[in-house]
Please model this.
Amino acid sequence: MDLLFQRGSATAGEIHAAIPDPPSYSAVRAALSVLERKGHIRHEIDRLRYVWTPRVGRDRARRNELRRVVRTFFEGSIEQAVAALLDDADLKDDQGKARIRALIEKAEERKP
Model:
């Protein structure tokens, strides 16, 4: 997905060539097919090649995937997910703490 977001579109061959230590070409094609079935990407046919493009923007894809991770690993609890992230975070930096607090305050302002 990162390659498609960076390039806008690419063929399976271009994606395969851009991956460091890539899996087989057929594994790349299979992954692209799965992403298409899930609605993340789509293809158009250019001559005899499939050209793959993202169906959603990077920010929306991030939010969707994060929601899936929270549902799958944290029983849908944002609090559990944030707690797990904070357990792993190095919050010695006061600027980092301030940014997190500001994000929480901004989220609270959006909610009635």
Summary: The domain at 2-54 is CATH 1.10.10.10 (Arc Repressor Mutant, subunit A). The mean pLDDT is 91.
